[in-house]
Structure formats: C-alpha cells, structure tokens
Amino acid sequence: MEKADFYDFFRKIPKAELHLHIEAVISFDSINKFYMRKFPGIGKDEAAREIKKLFTYDNLDGFIQAYLQIQEMYESVADFDLIFSDLKDYIVRNGISYVEVFAAPSAFVKKGFDFSAMVESYSRNVRKVKEETGVDVRILIDVSRTFGAENAEKNLQLLLANRIPEIIGIGLGGSESKGPCRDFGAVFEKARDNGLFTVAHAGEDVDAFSIWDAIDILKVSRVGHGVTAFQDEALMKELVRRGIALESCPMSNVFTKRYVKSLSEHPLRKFFDEGIMVTLNTDDPLFFGVELVDEYWNAYSQMGFSAAELKEIVKNSFRASFLDEGRKARFCAAVDEAWG
Ligand code: HPA
Ligand code: ZN
Prior knowledge:
alpha/beta; TIM Barrel; eight-stranded parallel β-sheet; 8 strands; 54% helix; globular; binds hypoxanthine; Ado/ade_deaminase
C-alpha cells in the first residue's frame, strides 16, 4: 500500500490507544500560547524556538525533566480544557474509537492545584469529548516513580477520596532507574483492593528484571513499553502465558535512546512473533511529533509488519483494554467490518 492510501485506510479503521499521556497530547500551538502567557512580550516564533529547545534530551530522565517543564506551563485547572480540546482533535484526526489516557497529577499538586477541581475537570471534559465525538476516554492516574513512594501513596489517597467513574486505574510512569517497583508494591496492592486497574511503565529504561518486578510485585495487567523483554526468553513466554499485553511505543523508545537507536532495531516484531499481545501507541505526541496512524505506518513501512498483522494489533488494542468483554467483541467486529 502507498503511504497516502495507507493513511486513508487506517484512519477509517476503529482503534484504541492505551498508552498516551494527556499532558503531552496538547498541541504545539497550545503550548506556544502557554509559553507566551508565561513570558509576556515574547514573540510567537521566539516562543517556538524556546519550546523546541526543551525537546532536546539524551535519555529518559532528561525527557522527564522536559515533561515537568511543560507541566510547569499550566497555570490553573482551567488549562485542562485546552488539553482535552486538543485530545478531541487528535482522536478525530486518527480515527480513534476508545482511549485510556494517563494523567500525572504530581507536578500539579506540588504547584497547588486542587485535586478535586482537577478530577471535576477530567470528568466534565471526558463527558464533553463523548458528546462531541461518541468516543469514551478513560483515565489512569500516573502515581509516578519520580517523586518516591510517599508521593505515590498520596496520589492514590487523593484519588480514592475523589472517585469518579471516568478514572479507572493507576499507572506508574516517571524515572524507572530511580524508582524501582519494590517501592510501590503497597500502593499498587491498595489500588487493586479498591477496585482499580493497574499498569506500569517497565523495561523502558531498565533491564528485563524491571518487567518481572512489574508483573510479580505490582501485579499489573499491562506493561508500558516492555522493550527489555527481548533480553529474557523466559519472560517473553511468561507474558504470553499470563496474557499480559505490552503497550509498545516504538517512536518514544527511539527518542529516549536507551535500547533502540532506530525503529528497525525495535523488538516489537520479535514480541509479535513470540505471541505476546502487543499494542501500538504514541506515548507523547507533542514531544515525538508522531500520532497513532504514524505509528501504524512506521510498523508497516519500517518494521516489517503486513497489513493483516497490523489488523491483529488493532484488535489487540481493544482486547488489551479495560473495556468489558462485550464491548471488546463489538469493537473487534467493527474492525472486521471496516476492513471489508
Ligand atoms: N516514561 C516515563 N514517564 C513518562 C513517559 C514515559 O514514556 N511519558 C510521560 N511520562
Ligand atoms: Zn508513557
């Protein structure tokens, strides 16, 4: 398939995205506005140049610092309306039918944002996206490795005190090398006991043992990235045996430079061949300049996936989601129908 045909076709196929950070789905234009508000008098082009400087980093921890600087530019909970408006445009542009998105409250809580106001905004905006597009968005609160276990526990407590149906679980993003899974076991157990789903970034910046810890200590349902599973044959078999899905974000891994230097080196192909339930995701579209249909195109044009194989990966995006079995089956049938 030629590129233009591929994009036309894939935009029309129903698909879910399961690994996306809400603060990084904001458009470049919106961040530019925030920047100009923060530094009054600065021109649009100069603001753009300054923001682009933020987007240069050599590793995951550098990226996380840049991410925190972007979060710094939000002035109040009212700014979340713009993120969700950009999320809505992103959903429509990419033909997405269902989203599970991370929201990372730590930096905002530290700035003094009121958690219950944040939750009210998430809830209202999720309902607005649903009204305008028909698409369900569900939120996973990223309790974060970066600020330690006490901060993660605090995030969980705030969440439990402000339950809304739109927030369905927790995730663990942030610095994998500085925040090992064992520090967060108790937080994840408490989340599960309270009926929350759990996922964790693991094997993005640390060797395969970190993925073992995520599945054995945190007992997560899905692993974010999971790149270093390629190091451990027994781990890959165990992921298959337990039906644990990987939320692969190939372009993100190229940008954070730890284990893959190019898309063609990415182990996604190997994981698929091993029978692991892999999904395709963007992680942070603002930072990596990549949207969901681009990830599918890259897998097709640079990573050796056929269109038929990508159809399985599209279906995996629903199978690996936290939707109920009936909705998963209906979405998979809708994929078959759209495929023709
Ligand atoms: N890893 C860790 N933390 C993050 C990421 C990521 O890929 N994206 C946003 N926060
Ligand atoms: Zn991520």
